[in-house]
Amino acid sequence: MGRVVGDGACYFQVADLLVDPTYANQGIDKLVMDELIQYLNENAGVDAFVVVITELTQIPLYKAYGFELTYPNAYSMKWTRNEGIA
Questions:
Q1: Which CATH number does the domain housing residue 33 bear?
Q2: Which residues sit opposite 1 in a β-bridge?
Q3: Could you tell me the pTM of the whole model?
Q4: How many helices (H) and strands (E) does the chain have?
């Protein structure tokens, strides 16, 4: 399973690329990425910014599709909504 979320033109995120452990190491992750990249090639604007947040072990998969580490030129940040804060 995998999906692309974004504004439909300039900014996208590859998200939720998951493969059932029963089917791991069978290339399913690459089949899903092939479809996601095809979608981006057909729908993302030229020079669109596509990001992915991944576990360290999955970096080679994304590099194989042309993704580059952004550090040190950019950093990732996160915000978590805590209970009681509106």
A1: 3.40.630.30
A2: none
A3: 0.85
A4: 2, 3
